[in-house]
């Protein structure tokens, strides 16, 4: 490993966006490095876009790192928190007398990120990294960026009060579904318009060389790891309009819950921060986006045999989750029964492109209504799976789970936990019902008429959440586990 790879091997696994938490890193390698800016000749900074391949449990995942390099051994105080460490200037030899640089996360360096915006504005598609602008409207440049501090799977930079640049961290070859669906939904009043993107060739893993079963025996000494396949044009970042008046749906819902918990004896619809009107409007916005997706992109109807395969995949995910999170084991039987009931329905299932990771943190309330964000799908799922057509009820189930999350998460460690369990249930039920009614009234299917399908999707999401929390926020593991326990009991 180079000195820089050593620094990255210590830094990458500590980042919020690193998806492989909890598993040892077997190897880390810089797979490609693209120079966006090089002022090193005059003692200035460099900006490089790195694709870093990280191997864990024999599988390779690729991550994007915006690498800043500055000469010397220290950074100014405003960048110190972004430092990875000191190394010999990469690519310029490491012998005596070679230059020493500080490597750091350039997402925090507004001087460097301004070049990303300028290149998108110039629609500069000439080099190995394509900077593309959407449509004829100019993109404003010269704006300073600030990295958002939200708990995120990616990194979002806010430029002035005009744009956000979402830097995709885990890279999957091809067009990112967030860019794909956001551009397909251009014109929807529930989606923030995209203004451009950045892309570069990223390798996918090819086939594993050795053949099992009937294939020819592997050559002696053959490397059993998957060989990198050809480079595929891959989205690295998306530029989108910044929604100035946006308030996170999660924050609004959590405020309403807090208000209820602070009003002993009040019913959720009577407490000052009643959220049910917003929940109904959110249901309507969701139905509107589902309709727009169905108009713009292919739809299909799954035959009962394919529905059974879907249910079997849910069971498989459960089996894997039980191995990683043994606390799930007591509920495995009722979860399995729900998936089986879905398989036994013997009904065709209409499918289309959907959001795929729908929850209150993916929607913001603006002065013009609810806006849906982040059409990337579940960050941990392979991209082919995330592009697959699915039932819109999957998104409905995701949001219903989120009402449950909003109601329960403040119970953890609350001194009145027992007394508040009832109000928490009532809050979740009121908002689940309001969302479902808004969804149906705006032309979506009636969720309550599809209980078996909905329950299977809700359980599947809850199993995903158990794994997500175990890996990312163990203190929250109780939230989905308690929901599963309650669902299983009812
Ligand atoms: N266009 C935007 N305008 C204002 N805030 C935004 C915008 N896009 C994202 N955000 C904020 O950033 C948060 C994270 O964005 P998201 O796209 O969900 O990133 P991630 O996939 O990393 O979770 C959102 O919950 C929202 O609060
Ligand atoms: O927003 P992301 O794409 O990063 O989604 C991941 O992280 C979410 C948490 O930030 C996680 O959502 C879970 O917690 C939310 C509250 O923080 C809650 O609203 C959701 O209902 C719950 O699923 C999401 O599952 C994960 O993919």
From TrEMBL:
Region (Disordered): 207-231
First-level EC class: transferase
Coiled coil: none
Record key words, sorted: ATP-binding, Carbohydrate metabolism, Glycogen biosynthesis, Glycogen metabolism, Kinase, Nucleotide-binding, Transferase
Source organism, top-level taxon: Bacteria
InterPro entries: Kinase-like_dom_sf, Mak_N_cap
Involved pathway(s): Glycan biosynthesis; glycogen biosynthesis
EC numbers: 2.7.1.175
Catalysed reactions listed for this entry: D-maltose + ATP = alpha-maltose 1-phosphate + ADP + H(+)
Gene3D superfamilies listed in its UniProt record: 3.90.1200.10
One Pfam short name: Mak_N_cap
GO molecular function: ATP binding; kinase activity
Listed GO biological process terms: glycogen biosynthetic process
Domain Maltokinase N-terminal cap: 11-109
Assembly and binders: Monomer.
Family the entry assigns: Belongs to the aminoglycoside phosphotransferase family.
Listed name of the protein: Maltokinase
Species of the source: Murinocardiopsis flavida
């Amino acid at each position: 490993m180079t000195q820089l790879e050593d620094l990255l091997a210590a830094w990458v696994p500590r980042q919020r966006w690193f998806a492989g938490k909890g598993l040892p890193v077997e190897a880390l390698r810089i797979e490609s490095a693209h120079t966006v800016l090089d002022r090193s000749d005059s003692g200035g900074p460099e900006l490089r876009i790195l694709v870093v391949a990280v191997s864990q449990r024999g599988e390779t995942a690729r991550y994007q790192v915006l690498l800043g390099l500055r000469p010397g051994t220290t950074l100014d105080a405003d960048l110190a928190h972004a430092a990875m460490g000191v190394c010999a200037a990469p690519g310029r030899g490491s012998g005596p007398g070679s230059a020493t640089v500080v490597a750091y996360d350039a997402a925090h360096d507004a001087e460097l990120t301004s070049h990303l915006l300028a290149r998108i504005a110039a629609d500069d598609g000439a080099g190995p990294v394509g900077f593309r602008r959407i449509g004829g409207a100019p993109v404003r440049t010269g704006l300073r960026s600030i990295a958002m501090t939200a708990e995120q799977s990616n990194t979002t930079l806010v430029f002035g009060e005009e744009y956000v640049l979402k830097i995709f961290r885990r890279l999957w070859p091809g067009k990112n579904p967030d860019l794909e669906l956001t551009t397909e939904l251009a014109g929807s009043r529930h989606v923030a318009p995209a203004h451009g993107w950045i892309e570069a060739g990223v390798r996918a893993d090819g086939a594993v060389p050795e053949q099992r079963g009937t294939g020819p025996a592997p050559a002696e000494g053959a490397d059993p790891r998957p060989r990198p396949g050809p480079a595929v044009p891959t989205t690295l970042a998306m530029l989108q309009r910044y929604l100035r008046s946006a308030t996170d749906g999660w924050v609004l819902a959590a405020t309403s819950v807090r208000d209820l918990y602070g009003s002993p004896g009040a019913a959720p619809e009577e407490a000052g921060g009643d959220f049910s009107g917003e929940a109904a409007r959110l249901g309507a916005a969701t139905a509107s986006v589902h309709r727009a997706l169905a108009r713009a992109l292919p739809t299909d109807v799954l035959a009962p045999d394919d529905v059974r395969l879907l249910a079997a995949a849910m069971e498989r995910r459960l089996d894997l989750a039980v191995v990683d999170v043994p606390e799930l084991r007591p509920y495995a039987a009722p979860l399995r029964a729900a998936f089986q009931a879905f398989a036994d329905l013997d009904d065709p299932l209409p499918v289309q492109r959907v959001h795929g990771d729908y929850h209150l943190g993916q929607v913001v309330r603006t002065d013009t209504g609810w806006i849906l964000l982040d059409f990337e799908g579940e960050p941990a799922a392979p991209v082919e799976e995330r592009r697959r057509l699915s039932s819109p009820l999957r998104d409905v189930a995701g949001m219903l789970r989120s009402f449950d999350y909003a109601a329960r998460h403040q119970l953890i460690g609350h001194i009145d936990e027992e007394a508040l369990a009832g109000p928490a249930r009532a809050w979740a039920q009121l908002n689940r019902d309001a969302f479902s009614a808004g969804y149906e009234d705006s032309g979506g299917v009636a969720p309550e008429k599809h209980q078996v399908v909905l329950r299977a999707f809700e359980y599947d999401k809850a199993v995903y959440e158990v794994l997500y929390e175990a890996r990312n926020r163990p203190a929250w593991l109780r939230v989905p586990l308690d929901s599963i326990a309650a669902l299983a009991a009812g």
